[in-house]
# Entry
Amino acid sequence: MATSVACLPGDGIGPEVMAEATRALDALGIEHAEHPFGGAAIDALGTPLPEETLVAAREADAVLVGAVGGPQWEPGACEKGLIDLRAALEVYANLRPAGNLLIVRELVGGLYYGARGTRADGTVFDTCEYTPAQVERVARRAFELARSRSGKLVSVDKANVMETGRLWRRVVSELATDYPDVELKHGLVDSVAMWIVMHPEEFDVLVMENTFGDILSDVAAGVSGGLGLAASASLGDGAPGIFEPVHGSAPDIAGTGAANPAAMLRSLALALEHSLGEPEQARRVEEAVDATLASTPTRDVGGTATTREFGDAALEALQVAVG
# Structure
């Protein structure tokens, strides 16, 4: 088993949910170390992504991230550390499971990485750009995932009004010839958003550009139980991947013990499956989380358990499963 996980707790409830993940890592016998990140790193070292943290992330087998940001920092300052970390590790494919569907989001292109600025007349702009190679690599990852699941893939774009959407559709359509066993359909982002809300069971794997993926993955999470339960994996062509809950730092409940660590533990399960080479342990963590959601739910899912009480129950279930 791989023995190196870099843990970046971050801000708000990040350290609280990360604590439950590190207890699970201990139970599984996986070495880990914490490193400053986000607003906490700005306060301590003046930057959201210190060099020592980036070095540790590059040398790890997987990177677990809590959450970043809060009202005490400049908007976007903490998030820049996360965006820079994704770019540095070249994790271009973001996997966001939500119930029975899986969203594959391109992660290092588009609006969040394009040119931006302010003109003399006060106009501000953000540029959405994609190269054919950027589209092809994430689409290929989505085709491979669809092939391993139901053999159905929906590619999401805005080809009716956007040049990047037309590029996206063209590249994905050309790539489909390499995957004759995968049924490909195209959908416009607005209509797909409606269908995810109304008929999520009709989807399996969906692939889309960065901003669309950011939005639709939260929509899908809401349909399947809420952000407190949603995990994600950000993968490149080699280790390490970045694994993090979809939820934010939730400063309004930080320190109260009310945070639900399910998404963080599910992110650990994704790390076990995709970066640590332990799919069986991943299944055990997922089963422990599911059992705990039923037996010891936190307040956000209708229960009264604290973060630590949920973690205790999950850890007990995991230890029984591991034996």
Observations:
- The mean pLDDT is 95.
- DSSP finds eleven helices and twelve strands in the chain.
- The two ends are 16 Å apart (CA to CA).
